[in-house]
Amino acid sequence: MMKLYLDICVYNRPFDNQHQERIALETSAFIYILRLTSYFCLAKDFIKVDYKDLGRGRYVVALGFSAMDALHLTLAEKQNVDYFITCDDSIIKLYRKHQDIMKIKVVSLLEFISLEVK
Q: Residue 106 phi/psi, 5° resolution?
């Protein structure tokens, strides 16, 4: 079974201004993910933060990620997820710059849907 880590912005997408085409598309993609196999029912892993995680988080911050984004990415790495899914262009841009250092794949919501549809 595929492990996904949905960034907070993905969960917030349905509450954003739906008059923008991209946001409406990403909202539809989020709803599609939920319908795939009701991921919320399958969510059973709780990721406990420890001091090692904070060290890795500081390293990820040094790459240019915000502290909160670095923590999310670090926890996703710790959990060995298949994909970290986000709507945040700055996370994706920084990830692409440093993807050789990151231990997970970071994709946009729409990229993930296109991978899933193939």
A: -110, 125
Which amino acid appears at position 27 of this protein?
A: T
Q: What domain range includes position 88?
A: 4-117
Residues 6+ apart with CB under 8 A from 97: 63, 64
- CB 82, CB 105: distance < 8 Å: yes
Q: What is the mean pLDDT of each run of 10 residues along the chain (118 residues)?
A: 87 93 93 72 75 93 96 95 95 96 95 82
13 touches 26 (CB < 8 A): yes
pTM of the model: 0.86
Number of domains composing the chain: 1
